[in-house]
Amino acid sequence: MNPAIIICISLFACIFGIFFLFFQTRNKERLALIEHDKDASIFKFRKDRSSPVWAVILLNLSLVLMGVGLGFLIGNLLETYTILSGDLAYVGSLFFTPGAFLLLGFYLTRKMKL
């Protein structure tokens, strides 16, 4: 059998399985809440948020892209002015700086009113 066909079938099966489990557990949780006469208001989308979700996503995306840019700059500086090889300098800085900027984004989103 062609490996491309096997990969396509397994990818479709994984995506289907993830969505199936997500909707099945969500349905079971809601049925359990109804059965025990609990309030199901946690599943409703709140409109009274002062900061929309897209603002948080945009903030984190912009910080990650700035971290990647700064990582390339730091990698170039490390390669030029130190004895580190180019691969190590770029990979190390490209993993460190976006992670640091995402940590900054976490603290900035905590300060936003959600």
UniProtKB/TrEMBL annotation:
InterPro entries, sorted: DUF6249
Repeat keyword on record: no
Keywords from the UniProt entry: Membrane, Transmembrane, Transmembrane helix
Span of domain DUF6249: 5-109
Transmembrane stretches, start-end: 6-23, 53-76, 88-108
Protein name: DUF6249 domain-containing protein
Organism of derivation: Zunongwangia mangrovi
